[in-house]
Specification:
The complex is a heterodimer of chains A (174) and B (134). Chain A is mostly helical and 174 residues long. Chain A folds into three domains: 95 residues, no CATH class; 32 residues; 42 residues, no CATH class. Chain A contains seven helices and no strands. Chain B is an all-alpha fold and 134 residues long. Chain B has one domain: Cytochrome c oxidase, subunit Va/VI (Serine Threonine Protein Phosphatase 5, Tetratricopeptide repeat, Alpha Horseshoe), CATH 1.25.40.40. Classes of the chains: A mainly alpha (174), B mainly alpha (134). Chain B: InterPro entries: Cyt_c_oxidase_su5A/6 (IPR003204), Cyt_c_oxidase_su5A/6_sf (IPR036545). Chain B: Pathway: Energy metabolism; oxidative phosphorylation.
Chain lengths: 174, 134
């Protein structure tokens, strides 16, 4: 809060061009974002990379810097300043942050494909090691069952031994 | 006896309820108010020309781009000039991004960009693709 109060009155007094000369020199000097109370100038050249790590006070300072900048003729803004202005207003942070980190969709597709392949392999390998089906499931056995059922007159009213029956009886094979 | 008389006078004294059908319901009609594209354009051009702060401009843009149409270049120009008036570069870039979302195909977007090229050059607006291409 202290920093905020300090930063507010000082900022409009500082001419934007001088602020940017200072910003550029601090970039070349290798100094990262200067603390807002000492010098309320933060280089705008790489706001995208460091925005998330800035404190609220520093973000406020950047907002104010950009506000001052955008009052100038837009043709005189550098591409970095334009990018910074766009990023701060509409970049993918805060409520516009992407729900999933990049690379999520390929990961999901790959995972699902892997699971389907594993399940298929498991299914056929288990079937390959299974015992043969029981002998009563063969077509011959089922036809013999039909003959035996007719011999015994099984289900004579509606079923296999009834008059005009044309169903398959016990045969389940095609 | 007395009570019955009193009751009858009271009953008679009550004014006859003249029931009028309440006018809660609007009479049904098949005519729907339909705004033409031209009047829509005129409405938003006027809106953006009179918008005084960033909130108003962005509110107008939200409303304007919420319809099932692509705003006319006149509206876009008014919106971009409104963004210039309230000194917000990012909103001006965002307007072009909004057009890209609304148009049906790349040719239409390109047509908008060509149509508005003088405006972009006059105000020094780079579209988002230009900002992030390098």
């Amino acid at each position: 809060m202290q920093a905020l109060r300090l930063a507010r009155p000082r900022l409009p007094l500082r001419p934007a061009s001088r602020a940017f000369a200072a910003a550029a020199s601090s970039v070349h000097g290798g100094a990262p974002a200067a603390s807002s109370s000492a010098s309320p100038v933060i280089p705008l050249s790489n706001v995208e990379a460091m925005w998330e790590r800035l404190s609220a006070d520093e973000q406020l300072v950047i907002h104010q810097q950009l506000e001052e900048l955008q009052k100038k003729d837009w043709k005189s803004l550098s591409i970095d300043e334009k990018k910074a202005a766009y990023y701060v207003a509409f970049g993918p942070h805060g409520p516009r942050a992407p729900t999933n980190p990049p690379g999520t969709v390929p990961k999901v597709i790959l995972g699902v494909t892997g699971l389907v392949v594993t399940a298929t392999v498991l299914f056929y390998s288990i079937r390959a090691t299974a015992p043969p089906p029981p002998k009563t499931l063969s077509k011959e056995w089922e036809e013999a069952s039909n003959e035996r059922a007719l011999e015994q007159k099984i289900n004579p009213i509606h079923g296999i031994s009834s008059e005009g029956y044309s169903g398959p009886g016990f045969v389940t094979h095609k | 006896m007395l009570r019955a008389q009193l009751a009858s006078t009271l009953l008679r004294a009550r004014p006859a309820a003249t029931r009028v059908a309440p006018v809660f319901a609007r009479p049904s009609s098949s005519a729907h108010g339909q705004e033409t594209f031209e009047s829509f354009t005129e409405r938003y051009v006027n809106f953006f020309q009179s918008a005084q702060d960033l909130f108003e401009v962005q509110r107008g843009l939200n409303n304007c781009f919420a319809h099932d149409l692509v705003p006319a270049p006149a509206v876009i120009e008014a919106a971009v000039r409104a963004a210039r008036r309230v000194n917000d570069y990012a909103t001006a870039v965002r307007v072009f991004e909004g057009i890209k979302e609304k148009v049906e195909n790349k040719q239409q977007y390109q047509a908008y960009l060509d149509e508005l090229k003088p405006l972009r050059e006059e105000l020094g607006i780079n579209i988002r693709e230009e900002l992030y291409s390098s």
